[in-house]
Structure formats: structure tokens, C-alpha cells
Write a structure and sequence with these properties.
469 residues, alpha/beta, two-stranded antiparallel ribbon, 18 helices, 12 strands, 13% strand, F-box domain-containing protein
Length: 469
């Protein structure tokens, strides 16, 4: 009797359940997570290792297998193409010479702006009045005259490919598989001085977040952008005339939702009804990385310089406009030698948010950062100034931890404690709190972590306390 030959077993012959397990082993931590605490750059989402993407190209079957995890960590690069034209009296005069070639949209703009400038008399032609009189108009298809304008400006907007991505998400039912979204750009918003740009900016930003949350429901949302652009994307202000001194190319902000999602709090009843990102969802965690302040130390009277204040303003909004049921319970801040004035402002804002249970700070360069060996960036800065600000900042944080009545089990984490010397210094500040009667117990399981323990609280005689200080 002839025995049938057995077909060799191949990967393709395995059932989908096993292939899913194989694909899962190729998944690695997203670069935006691994590098979030590094000094901000435009490369937050980039990685040299892309095994899942390569596997998805092997065959249609592998493509289908990998789809649910392939888009788990998604990134959206904002379109860099400028699309807005400032319509001033001089441009309207130029349009008058091309009336027969104007599109319908351009023709409407011409008539509307022509009557406006006539009512403004000759002042409309003076450049000093441009910021008050100009209108920003978005270029539409067929607006050849506007496309040829000498000045075309940029406001944040989604790329045209986002709608295609949204359709892919809907087609393959991936909405709840996308766990993290990073919205990023290296374009700077340059219209802060133009008052008429505020309304178009607000509409453009609202459209970005409405479109993203219509197609996706990420538990993690990250925004990476230059300070001026990030302020617009967060619906806040920079509040600093000294950005030039800090040379901060990029800031990161991270917002996390609870899992499972708190769907009963998805509406805006517990938060402000405006369209700001911080009110879009009931966030449980806010993380912020403002990068390095080192270059500002080389400037004259550096301690008087003001770093960008977006984080402070966002925290104040959370304190004023969000009910406790929807406010953050976790906060982290990363910076490279921020000024104590900046840390003090952040702490004062945190003091108004009474729902916090976990707080983390990193104020010195991480192991991956060699900024102290970079003579060009160091400039005329003195290392002693760095550590003076660092120490004063931790004193401010210690006072905050001692004054605010945190609930039992609340956690403070110093990410500077990877360095043995810095760990000793931070420990010294927390031990002073214990000596003053505030029960913060050092964790025996993790370096740089202290836990609020009301059982260790004790009354301290004022005279003794004075001696400690």
C-alpha cells in the first residue's frame, strides 16, 4: 500500500491564532515612550527597528494579522504647506488687475475686502496698520492668484492623508486598537503678533482635535512641537519674550486616559465646554518635557529670563475648569536645569490641583544627554549656576510636598536619582520633610521613590524645627 507523503509544515500553514502570537513577540516599546524623557527633538517617533512593518509586507495574510498591532502606536505629522494669505490693501489692488482670472472664492474676497479698505481711507495702505486691517484667508483649490501672493503663512493643520488613514481605521475596525497618537511638527507658528490670526488659529486647532477624536480613541495623546506652535495646539499662550534665550526647539506634552475608558465622562459636563485639547477627554495623567534651559544661562542676568509658560497656564486651566472627577491624578515634569522661578510657578499651579496622587520630576540631564560636555551649548554658562538652580528647585518641591495634604499612599518620584550623588541630595531634602513631621517614606523597592505615609506624621516643636532649618 502506498503511503501518502506528508506535506512539510511551514509558517504559512499555521493557524491565525499562532501567527498572532508570533507577531505579538515582534512588538516593541514605541519610540515616543522610550524617548519621551530625552531632550526633545523632531525625531521623537523615529526608530531604526521596524520588524512589524517589515512583516506586514510579506503577504496579504501577514498584513491582516499585523494590522491590529501595526497601528497601535500611530503618528500624525502636521502638514508643513502654508495655506493662509494675509489680505491687505496692496494685494487687493493687485487682484483688481486680474479680475477676469479670479476664482469665485477670490472674487468674493476681493469685493468684501475692497469695501472694507475703502471705509478705512488711506490708512489701509500703511504697513503699520496691517496687523489691524488684514484678514487671513485660506487658499482653496483654483485660487491661483492667492497662491502667487508674496506672503503665504502657516497655521497648524492635518495632512490630506489623514482622511485616508481615517478610512483605513474604519474599514478594518481599528479605532480601539490605536492606543497612542503622537501629533508632531517642527514648524514654528509665527503669527502671535497678528491679532486677526487668533480666530483662524482657534478654528484650525479645533478642527485638528475634532478630526482626530472622530476617527480615533487613543488612551495616550502626545503633542511634540516648537513652543510657539505647541501654545496654539494647546489653546494657550507662550507668555514669554525670552524664547530666543532658551533656544528650545521642541516641547512634548503627554496626556493619558484611564483604561478601561471612562465613557460616562466623555462629554463635557465635568469640564469646560470649549474645544481645547485638555478638555477633550477626562485625562488622568499629564506629562511635560520642556527640554534644556542651558543656553539661557549664558545671557546677561539669566535669572531674570522667563521660559515659555504653556505648562503653567494649562495646569491653571485644569485647576479652574475641571471637576475633581475628571482632573489629573498623575503629573510628571522633565527639564534640563530649569530655572527655580519656572519650577516655582509649576508647583504653585500644582498646589491648586488637589486630586494628584503621583508626581515625578527630572531636572538634570539623563544618561543619554551629554550637554555638559558640549562647549558650544554651554557657552559662557557656569556649572555652579546649574546646580544652584537645581538645588533651589528641589527645595521648592520639598516645601510643596510638605505643605500639601496628600492622601495616604501618594507617590513622589525623582528621576534624577539614577545618579548616586543626586540621589543623596534629593534624599537629604526628603529627610528634612520627615524631620519636620511630614511622613514621606522612602520606597525599599525602587530608587528615587517616596510614599506618603500618614502613620509617620508627628508634631514638631517649633523651636526644634527652627534648629533644623
Amino acid at each position: 500500500m502506498e503511503i501518502p507523503s506528508r506535506q512539510p509544515t511551514t509558517v504559512e500553514s499555521l493557524p491565525n491564532e499562532l501567527l498572532i502570537q508570533i507577531a505579538a513577540h515582534l512588538e516593541s516599546e514605541a519610540p515616543s515612550i522610550a524617548k519621551f524623557a530625552h531632550e526633545p527633538t523632531a525625531h521623537l517617533t523615529e526608530s531604526d527597528s521596524m520588524p512589524l512593518k517589515h512583516l506586514s509586507l510579506v503577504s496579504w495574510r501577514w498584513r491582516k494579522i499585523t494590522l491590529p498591532i501595526l497601528f497601535r502606536y500611530s503618528r500624525i505629522a502636521l502638514d508643513k504647506e502654508p495655506q493662509w494669505v494675509p489680505i491687505d490693501a496692496r494685494l487687493v489692488d493687485s487682484m483688481q488687475t486680474q479680475l477676469t482670472t479670479l476664482s469665485n472664492h477670490e472674487f468674493q474676497i476681493y469685493h468684501r475686502m475692497r469695501s472694507k479698505f475703502k471705509s478705512s481711507s488711506e490708512f489701509a495702505y500703511e504697513e503699520a496698520f496691517d496687523d489691524l486691517l488684514i484678514n487671513l484667508c485660506r487658499i482653496q483649490d483654483g485660487d491661483n492668484c492667492l497662491k502667487a501672493a508674496p506672503h503665504i503663512l502657516w497655521l497648524p493643520h492635518l495632512p490630506k492623508t489623514f482622511e485616508i488613514f481615517g478610512r483605513v481605521v474604519a474599514q478594518y475596525d481599528l479605532k480601539h486598537h490605536v492606543k497612542s497618537v503622537v501629533v508632531h511638527t517642527d514648524k514654528e507658528y509665527e503669527l502671535r503678533h497678528v491679532s486677526t490670526a487668533d480666530a483662524p488659529l482657534a478654528r484650525a486647532v479645533a478642527d485638528i482635535w475634532s478630526s482626530i477624536f472622530r476617527h480615533l480613541e487613543p488612551t495616550r495623546t502626545v503633542v511634540a512641537a516648537p513652543p510657539s506652535t505647541l501654545a496654539g495646539l494647546l489653546d494657550t499662550q507662550v507668555m514669554s519674550a525670552d524664547i530666543w534665550a532658551f533656544d528650545m526647539k521642541m516641547h512634548y506634552v503627554e496626556l493619558l486616559q484611564s483604561e478601561p475608558l471612562r465613557r460616562e465622562h466623555m462629554d463635557s459636563k465635568c469640564r469646560s465646554r470649549d474645544s481645547a485639547l485638555i478638555h477633550r477627554r477626562p485625562w488622568r495623567h499629564l506629562g511635560y518635557n520642556e527640554g534644556s534651559s542651558i543656553t539661557a544661562y549664558s545671557t546677561y542676568e539669566y535669572h531674570l529670563k522667563q521660559s515659555p509658560k504653556m505648562l503653567y497656564l494649562v495646569l491653571i486651566r485644569l485647576a479652574r475648569e475641571v471637576q475633581p472627577c475628571c482632573n489629573i491624578t498623575s503629573f510628571s515634569f522633565t527639564g534640563v536645569f530649569p530655572f527655580v522661578t519656572n519650577v516655582t510657578a509649576i508647583v504653585r499651579a500644582l498646589d491648586k490641583i488637589r486630586t494628584l496622587k503621583q508626581i515625578a520630576f527630572q531636572l538634570a540631564p539623563g544618561k543619554e544627554n551629554n550637554v555638559l560636555d558640549d562647549s558650544k551649548r554651554m557657552g559662557r554658562a557656569q556649572r555652579s549656576d546649574f546646580w544652584l538652580e537645581w538645588n533651589e528647585s528641589y527645595k521648592t518641591i520639598a516645601v510643596y510636598l510638605g505643605d500639601l495634604e496628600f492622601e495616604d499612599g501618594a507617590v513622589f518620584r525623582s528621576r534624577d536619582c539614577g545618579n548616586a550623588q543626586l540621589a543623596q541630595d534629593v534624599t537629604a531634602y526628603l529627610e528634612v520633610l520627615q524631620q519636620r513631621g511630614a511622613g514621606w517614606r522612602k520606597s525599599s523597592e525602587e530608587e528615587g521613590v517616596w510614599i506618603r505615609d500618614h502613620g509617620l506624621d508627628r508634631n514638631v516643636d517649633p523651636i526644634t524645627e527652627l534648629g533644623i532649618v
